[in-house]
Amino acid sequence: MKQDYTHSEYERFVSENHPLICSFLRERRLDQSEFYDVVVFGFLNAAGFFVGVRSGLCDVISTSRCKKIILYEKEGYFYRCSPYDYFSLEKMRLCQDAVEFEYHADTSEAVIERILEELNPQYAKSQ
Length: 127
Description:
Layout (H helix, E strand, L loop, with lengths): L6 H21 L4 H16 L1 E5 L2 H6 L5 E7 L9 H5 L11 E5 L4 H12 L1 H6 L1
Parallel strand pairs: 1-2, 2-3
Helix pairs in contact: 1-2
């Protein structure tokens, strides 16, 4: 499997192939609420990565072999600790290979830079 896609290649792959997941489920009359997560693993492994704000979907994909980047909003607390402290996949022992970090809503440029560096170490060297 090719591991050094450009961002536009990833974007094209996802936009062109995500409908295949829905079509596959529909053609086989499989309930999306029951089988989507099963099928999406192959999709994520082919895409090579997942980037998302922490949600229940992160629990579902936590065992995928793809690179996982999970974002936690820094503002706000959940029972006297941050969402990261409470919901970290690593701390919950759901996943040991995810990159997890907190962000402030007003630092979108820095978040994008960090994600690009995580996805492509060569990007950091070129900056």
